[in-house]
Amino acid sequence: MGAGPVGLTAAAELRRNGADCRIVDRLPTRLPYAKAVGIQPRTMELWDRMGMVRAALEAAVPMRGQLTYMDGAEGPRIDLALPPDVPYGFAALPQYETERIIEEHLARFGTRIERGTELVSFVQDDDGVVSRVTTSSGLRPQVEEVPMPVRSTWRTVESSIRTPSKRVGTAEPVTEKRMPPLGSGSLKSAPLTSCTSTPSTT
């Protein structure tokens, strides 16, 4: 998998739940561009569950809303108001910082990114998966065999929710411990940020 936010998050969840994994990325280093800046409150809640929200809060900039401009004129104002029971607010965090935080979180499990390595193909059969990866050094692609279970077993429990005809089966609940936002200035108390939009040419 690649070492962007999605691949890193998938790897972190696998390791948190006791599964081994490898994470490869064809780039030699993370890109230094501030893309995918907006962080949703729900993302913060998930990072809380994963055990990395403290690092995210320390690096993020709180965001209460946005000011938009078009051709130099101020446009609509967007207020990011939330109900009081939502534990985290909106935040701005560059993608390279998000990747750094998750990468450091992964390192605590002993998992590191294999950079300059690209997955070029894979074949799956009943016995497992054969993947082909190549390195950026121009070496001949090496073939690796990765074992894959024939089937998986899911644990389910019966919930107390009843319908007229049957009981509803649900996945076993997970106990979560939430960490409140750090510091006296929460993610709901910062000034508005601004952005500039340009008219579409299409």
Features:
about 200 residues; alpha+beta; FAD/NAD(P)-binding domain; three-stranded antiparallel sheet; three-stranded mixed sheet; 4 helices; 13 strands; about 20% helix; globular
Short description:
This protein has 202 residues and is an alpha+beta fold. The protein is 21% helix and 30% strand.
CATH architecture assignment of the largest domain: 3-Layer(bba) Sandwich
Order of helices and strands: HEEHHEEEEHEEEEEEE
- Structure summary, number of beta strands: 13
Average pLDDT reading: 75
Unreliable sequence segments: 150-202
Number of domains: 2
Name the structural class. alpha+beta
Helix content: 10-25%
Profile the largest sheet.
3 strands, antiparallel
Strands of the biggest beta sheet: in what spatial order?
A: 2-6-3
Please give the CATH class of the largest domain.
Alpha Beta
Radius of gyration: 22 Å
CATH homologous superfamily descriptor of the largest domain:
FAD/NAD(P)-binding domain
**In DSSP terms, counting alpha (H) and pi (I) runs of 4 or more, how many helices?**
4
**What amount of the residues lies in strands?**
25-35%
The CATH topology name of the largest domain reads FAD/NAD(P)-binding domain
Q: What separation lies between the terminal Cα atoms?
A: 35 Å
User: What sort of overall outline do the alpha carbons produce when their principal axes are compared?
Assistant: globular
Keywords: Monooxygenase, Oxidoreductase
Organism: Streptomyces pratisoli
Protein name: FAD-dependent monooxygenase
